[in-house]
């Protein structure tokens, strides 16, 4: 039987910050079943906090805190020391270092990371941009984009565009089909902002078969035929060479990893 | 003059995990200028690690680690203790608690949080779904969606759809325009999966004016006229009442906060 572990998250805002870290930690324990949907947002009163911590003890849960209110964070820490509650404070170790380094105290304003500032609106407009200019729908997007992704079907152009957009990178993409000429404007774009995507043909066969299945279509389609796919890839590679742009092999790469490669390229260029 | 703080991030994979936490911490110090683009990914050798840590001391930087390799993490901790380097390890406090609780050790596999498993592919297909069915482009999406967002122009339907999709929620949205009848299928959908979006009219005037400006269009348009907007909102509110669906006011809410409200509704329903 698999071991089970409960994780409580306590926050004075919506509690978004701890989720990514918990995902990274729990991924290191494939043999433990984690229950981490015990999410306690908007904890703003001491009584409310202590009640949650008491429940955590009963549930033998680990408590992860992103409380920014110093008073509440201290109460939780004291409670944990007295009771042996397993408690992790993600914010305060940082705050203490910053205090000793700069003498500055945090403003203790919950949820301020979601502030509607210029950065926020840039990110939102990058997301809207990526949706609007997905799939080469409108060639006007290519000139305005920060990044243009080119690739044959199922080389993860769309999710990669959305991921980059979420990092405020205005991303457009163009599907490559040997029979369809590419828009003239592509040849005039700065090559620094274009990236070619490829994938191993065997992997693409599987991915495309799954897609056909999901769409309820005949599996024997040309679309998932290895010879067809090899022809498409040869066409794409030739184009990438002509354009002199970097090529990213997305086989076995997650979106985060492919995006990382692109961001490193962009960083190098801006240096 | 503003104080400046350098943050180094050290990871044995791409170093994505620490970014969100650092954003949340630094948001609490509006008066400090943070330089946190010193990102050191794929740190897999002790010499490489120590060299980075030495540079951090020279730069008076804070080092944030998400190293999952126990040997490397211990070297970094020892180095920090000897030298007084300001060092925060985000993973190991968790690992220690899990070790004491379950006797299980982490598999120490860098980057495994980006594993291409079923969850990952669900998320990717939710993102593709949301792009495909954005803006009511294809009414087939409404039946298949987990969530359908309804709202007049500029109530953040698109970014909210993308955010939910990134949480693996298949989201479609329908723009509401008083002069355009809504698709018949909307009346047949389970009302539990529909959400109405509204926004204060004064805020919408500003947002729409900005949009017109961004598009290089005449600012005196009907589109940003307060009477027109009030009429659209009245129409939307009446429809939401008829459909008996929850209404979310997105004024002054970030996408994360609006999404949180929706996720809480979904959670309540599934209980």
From TrEMBL, chains A, B:
ADP binds at residues 151-158. PANTHER family: PYRUVATE, PHOSPHATE DIKINASE REGULATORY PROTEIN 1, CHLOROPLASTIC. Belongs to the pyruvate, phosphate/water dikinase regulatory protein family. PDRP subfamily. Bifunctional serine/threonine kinase and phosphorylase involved in the regulation of the pyruvate, phosphate dikinase (PPDK) by catalyzing its phosphorylation/dephosphorylation. GO terms for molecular function: ADP binding; ATP binding; phosphotransferase activity, phosphate group as acceptor; protein serine/threonine kinase activity. Its EC number is 2.7.11.32, 2.7.4.27. The keyword Transmembrane does not apply. NCBIfam families: PRK05339.1. Keywords: Kinase, Nucleotide-binding, Serine/threonine-protein kinase, Transferase. It catalyses: N(tele)-phospho-L-histidyl/L-threonyl-[pyruvate, phosphate dikinase] + ADP = N(tele)-phospho-L-histidyl/O-phospho-L-threonyl-[pyruvate, phosphate dikinase] + AMP + H(+); N(tele)-phospho-L-histidyl/O-phospho-L-threonyl-[pyruvate, phosphate dikinase] + phosphate + H(+) = N(tele)-phospho-L-histidyl/L-threonyl-[pyruvate, phosphate dikinase] + diphosphate. This is Putative pyruvate, phosphate dikinase regulatory protein.
